[in-house]
Amino acid sequence: MICLMTLASVYQSTDCAISFELFPPKTSEGVELLCKNVERLMQFGPKYFTCTYGAGGSSQGTTLEVLQKVKQITKLPVASHLTCVGSTVKELEAYLTEAGRIGVDYIVALRGDPPKGTTQFEVTEGGLKYANELVELIRGRFGDLGIAVAGYPETHQEAVDFQTDLTNLKRKVDAGADIVITQLFYDNDDFYRFRDACEKVGIEVPIVPGILPVTNFKQAKRIASMCKAAIPQSLESAMTEADDDQDQFRVGVEHARQQTIDLVNNGVPGIHYYVLNKSEAAAELLDGLSLTSC
């Protein structure tokens, strides 16, 4: 496997490194549309693309197919999400081996959410319990792969408290993670508090904020409730007072644009955009912006 750049080196520039997250489409038409949107997103100079997979490990194969296509189109590094859910260590190793074979450069290492219909994470027999164990596996057996882990500015929904969640994050970083990508948030102050707290406990890797533009308020509330992200009252009021769907789109994109400007002005090393396989919102909010950190 030839890695175009290490994951750590992506964030060593004075520019704010942009990356985009995709998910595996369910149809061939969806794949075709995704590829068109990827081509459109290339105008903003992303450093890499990531791709999730379905709950419980479904669509893993499609994830690798998508990443292979994206790499062919963009010639950029690509990252696969990988969770502990429903997999033995041998199955995780088999996936990592195949990911390396087809040219995946980085892994977003996650414990993973409980499968649909359940409320608690259950360890698969012969599997792993925590994300730090997955990081240790990758770092020990697949050292060429860059590793990103997840951070939660507003605390993981299953964590006892913020400090416990932060301790768990440091455990993942100490196990060998290159960067932290945060869960989505809509108030930058939440991110800055989180970043400061990370620094205080000795987390020294790049902390990359994750942004999801609000383009549909009903969908935004559902996603935010799933990941325990608060929607500011000002944004909620503006969205609910919008005249129509297009006006909601405009309000949400402008909020994400202002988030981006503020984050760049406050020296973030990069921003990871959750684009939901679309390009319109990202194109609107990034158009004309200077992404050089101050």
Automatic annotation (TrEMBL):
- Which InterPro entries has this protein been placed in? FAD-linked_oxidoreductase-like, Mehydrof_redctse-like, MTHF_reductase_bac
Tell me the Gene3D superfamilies matching this sequence.
3.20.20.220
Q: What Pfam families does this protein's entry cite? A: MTHFR (PF02219)
Molecular functions (GO terms): FAD binding; methylenetetrahydrofolate reductase (NADH) activity
Catalytic reaction(s) noted: (6S)-5-methyl-5,6,7,8-tetrahydrofolate + NAD(+) = (6R)-5,10-methylene-5,6,7,8-tetrahydrofolate + NADH + H(+)
Q: Which CDD domains match?
A: MTHFR
The pathway this protein participates in, as annotated, is: Amino-acid biosynthesis; L-methionine biosynthesis via de novo pathway; One-carbon metabolism; tetrahydrofolate interconversion
Keyword list (alphabetical) reads: Amino-acid biosynthesis, FAD, Flavoprotein, Methionine biosynthesis, NAD, Oxidoreductase
Q: Which cofactor does it need?
A: FAD
| One of the GO biological process terms | tetrahydrofolate interconversion
Question: Could you name the domain of life of the organism this protein comes from?
Answer: Bacteria
* Top enzyme class: oxidoreductase
GO CC annotations, alphabetized: cytosol
Record PANTHER family: METHYLENETETRAHYDROFOLATE REDUCTASE, METHYLENETETRAHYDROFOLATE REDUCTASE (NADPH)
- NCBIfam families this protein is in? fadh2
Kindly provide the name given to this protein in its UniProt entry.
Methylenetetrahydrofolate reductase
- Organism, by scientific name, is Rhodopirellula baltica SH28
